[in-house]
Structures are given as structure tokens and as C-alpha cells.
Amino acid sequence: MKWQRKDILAIEDMSVEEIRHILHTAKVMKEILMRPIKKLPTLKGKSVVNLFYEASTRTRTSFEMAAKVLGADTTSIAVAQSSVSKGESLYDTAKTIQAMRADVVILRHPSSGSAKFLADILDPAVINAGDGQHAHPTQALLDIFTMQENLGELEGKNVVIVGDVLHSRVARSNAWCLQKMGVNVTFAGPPTLVPAEMEGLGVKITHDLDSALPGADIVMALRLQLERQKSGLLPSLREYSHLYGLTTERLKKTGKQSIVLHPGPMNRGVEISDDVANSVDALIERQVTNGVAIRMALIYLLIGGSSNVVA
């Protein structure tokens, strides 16, 4: 297919054909990434700006590496040391970046809808690296890519996503993406973190993780944001871990060799035990590698490439 999309803002409005095109391009990019010398001249002379208003290690570094492997120049703006700390608005910061002739702007921001706001006012492509509780499209795409690598065709597979769904942009984007690919999705967690309204996403919900696990091909643990316990949404971390933490014993309930994913960073001993996190079924490090490949694919497609990468 010919790529026509200017921005990557959310999964909801993407077609299955577009998702498959991204995954196909990412497969080529991963082959390049695994070479001893991983550097292409493909995007030489192009400029990518990372604008992160929230703390990030994996996502920001992943985007930086993706752009550099493709040969683009990268700039990361540390918001705490920028004019934002002096009161500059997102609008004015964005217009300043545009005036510097950036080709792609990658935004992480605590406000839902901020990426769409930026895309509407900027000529450069915008990639949403997480906006509030709304969406994290590149995480969903790398998760699907990792699942496909391990399981092949995903249609009819069963995925259980457990944890703080209420505040999770990762859960929302995965729900959209997985269902477009024909996957059955179940959200599991305490009632305060998995409210009934989540059924509006088309997923099943349960507050009993153990009952959801039989037949699950993939189990994804979400990071438990520890401040939730302080705000009264959880009685204690110990109780949460007892009821919803992934352990080797609990995963036996799936009845198969299920794969385990986690978007990171992990709270070991809370949402996932050490033995599960370090097991061969946990593909958490591969998610990080695949994140670079997915982001390479997106930067390449948005700046005007096809899926036929010339090395």
C-alpha cells in the first residue's frame, strides 16, 4: 500500500491494512537493527525532535536510536531545562520547533489530546509517544509485533491484560489494536482500577484474574502506579500482589505455555514476580528491541519512505 498518513496519533482510526503495513516495515527494520553495523543513510539530512513533558527512559531512548539508525539528526528537548519552565505554552514551543525546520516531532505529554492539538497546528509529522491516559500507539504496535513473532497469526488468540487499566494508555491502545487483529481481550484487576465502563472498549472485564487465565495465550501485566495505593484505590500492595501479581504458579492456570509481556518499568514483587520476569516465557527485553524496530518503521514511513527499504 502507499502510505498517506501524516501523523501517528492513536490506533482507533487506523485500518488493519495500515497496521499490517507498519508491522511488515518493522520486520525489515529489525533485520537492519540486528546487523553488526546498524546505520543507514536513508534519512540523512532529516531532523527528528523528541519533546517529552514526562519522564521516560525506554520510549525516548528508543525513538532516539530509531532515528539515528536511519541516519536522521535527533534533538531531545529536556522540558525541565527549556522555556516551558518559564511558562511557554505547548503551542509556542511547537511553533518554535517548526521554525527550526524539524521533519518529525515526537511528543509525550500528560494531557490527553495534546498530540492531536500539535498535529493540527504543525506541518511536520507528529508521533504520539503517550498523551495522558488516552493513547500510546507505538507501545501497542510493538506489543503486537512481539506477539506475532512468537505466535504467528493472532486472530482468535486470547490476551489477558491485568493491572491499572483505568489510568493506562497502554491498555486502551492495546485493546483497540488487538481487537482490530481479531484477538479476544480481557481486562482484569480490582474494581477500582477496572471499572465496568471499560466494557465500552469492546473487551471483557473481570475482577478475578484466576478465572480469566485458562486458555490465555498472552498475559500482559501493566505497571501498577504506586501512587494509586496512596490515593485509596488499593488497600495495600501486598493484597494487590496476592490477587493480581503474576507468579509461576498462577500462570500454570492458563493450561499452556503462555507468553508474558510488560510495558515497563516493572515493579518486581508487586505486579510480576522475579521468576516470571526472568523466565523464557517473558518477552520483556524483546519488547524493547522491537520498540526500536517499530519506531524506525514509523519515522521512515512518515518522512516519505515505502516499505521497500534500500540498505
Which fold does the CATH topology of the largest domain refer to? Answer: Rossmann fold
Task: Report the biggest beta sheet as strand number plus sense, adding barrel if it closes.
Answer: 5 strands, parallel
- Any idea what the shape is? globular
Write down the overall mean pLDDT.
Answer: 92
Count up the helices: 12
Tally the structural domains.
2
Q: How much helix, percentage-wise, in residues?
A: 25-40%
**Structural class from helices and strands?**
alpha/beta
The gyration radius over C-alpha positions equals 19 Å
Regions with pLDDT < 50 over 5+ consecutive residues?
Answer: none
Secondary structure tally: strands: 9
How would you portray this structure in words?
- Carbamoyl phosphate binds at residues 58-59, 108, 136, 139, 264-265.
- Keywords: Pyrimidine biosynthesis, Transferase.
- Belongs to the aspartate/ornithine carbamoyltransferase superfamily. ATCase family.
- With 311 residues, this protein is an alpha/beta fold.
- It folds into two domains: 16-135 and 288-303, Aspartate/ornithine carbamoyltransferase (Rossmann fold, 3-Layer(aba) Sandwich); 138-286, Rossmann fold (3-Layer(aba) Sandwich), CATH 3.40.50.1370.
- Helices cover 38% and strands 14% of the residues.
- The chain has twelve helices and nine strands.
- It has a five-stranded parallel sheet. A four-stranded parallel sheet has the order 2-1-3-4, with helices on both faces.
- Helix 6 links the parallel strand 5 and strand 6 (184-188).
